Amino acid sequence: MESKWCVFVAMAMFMLVILVNGDDETSAVKPKVKIVKGKKLCDKGWECKGFSEYCCNQTISDFFQTYQFENLFAKRNTPVAHAVGFWDYHSFITAAAQYQPHGFGTTGGKLMGQKEVAAFLGHVGSKTSCGYGVATGGPLAWGLCYNKEMSPSKLYCDDYYKYDYPCTPGVSYHGRGALPIYWNYNYGKTGEALKVDLLNYPEQIENNATLAFQAAIWRWMTPDKKNQPSAHEAFVGKWKPTKNDTLAKRVPGFGATMNVLYGDQVCGKGDDESMNNIVSHYLYYLDLMGVGREEAGPHEVLSCAEQLPFSQAPTTTSSS
Ligand SMILES: *[C@@H]1O[C@H](CO)[C@@H](O)[C@H](O)[C@H]1NC(C)=O
Ligand SMILES: *[C@@H]1O[C@H](CO)[C@@H](O)[C@H](O)[C@H]1NC(C)=O
Ligand SMILES: *[C@@H]1O[C@H](CO)[C@@H](O)[C@H](O)[C@H]1NC(C)=O
């Protein structure tokens, strides 16, 4: 009897030692590791699954936690906000888990991961803000105030895509989500990628915050056109600019993410107000996350004021 008890206590202490040792400085979760062709691949369970090199470093929840999400989006649940109770940290992390094995927030080490999360959320905050000049807490405290366009003036049905992405009668394809989706073809493409029928049921985006974040991160991670980078690749520097890109002043960094996502709507127009608003959110979040805006780099990397849109090739001859 007594000796069994001793064995039990000894085993319990042994396991405690393993648990303490498992908690190393790079991560709270001890990864499963294997080496394939000289490359170290890891699996960290639910947040970074499937043996990827990106799962060997810190994952997003190691450096971005609930209280930080609450700081960034401090006003989203105040009574005047328009999506009270909808957005939360859990839905963001759950959605991000699917893309971390592909490098979202897990490329290049902790600092780059923090910066990418701030950059992605900077876009999200800017697009979902109801902050204005005199809003309490300042105009940047109001990200994730919306989850949909409030008074759409049209159905956003483009008949040009009637064969690939036909509009469902009576359904409206107005803006919804974290990086709002507009138009039947964008709902169609996103739905195809996420294997959700968004063409018939686009309202799923405004009813499910995990799906809304998933759609937004998919957009961030996916090039819109051939021979263009994704916003992710443009941000972390996986994208190598061509000669034309260089001539068009397109350089890797935050500015290029705006170019990928919005092109001529915000880029190449000088000191554009909506461009500045996106940049301001990014810098504000870098500060709140404890990274500091000085990590954002110089103006020509941060801005796309002078960049030609990706869709546009530089003219080699002078236009004068
Ligand atoms: C892991 O982090 C280190 C720096 O901490 C970085 O050099 C390396 O590129 C990262 N691995 C991946 C796959 O991004
Ligand atoms: C919300 O979306 C996620 C991700 O697509 C899905 O796993 C989940 O089942 C959805 N929740 C509901 C209640 O439909
Ligand atoms: C570079 O731009 C020129 C037009 O200015 C175009 O003809 C050429 O195909 C482009 N090259 C690449 C690699 O995109």
TrEMBL record:
Family matches, as InterPro entries: Glyco_hydro_19 (IPR016283), Glyco_hydro_19_cat (IPR000726), Lysozyme-like_dom_sf (IPR023346)
Superkingdom, natural source: Eukaryota
GO terms assigned for molecular function: chitin binding; chitinase activity
Keyword tags: Chitin-binding, Disulfide bond, Signal
Entry annotated with the keyword Cytoplasm: no
Intrachain S-S bonds: C157-C167, C267-C304
GO biological process terms, semicolon-separated: carbohydrate metabolic process; cell wall macromolecule catabolic process; chitin catabolic process
Pfam hit, one: Glyco_hydro_19
Domain Glycoside hydrolase family 19 catalytic: 68-294
Record-linked CDD domains: chitinase_GH19 (cd00325)
Gene3D superfamilies: 1.10.530.10, Endochitinase, domain 2
Signal peptide: 1-22
Family named by the database record: Belongs to the glycosyl hydrolase 19 family. Chitinase class I subfamily.
Protein name as annotated: Choline transporter-like protein 2
Protein encoded by which gene: CTL2
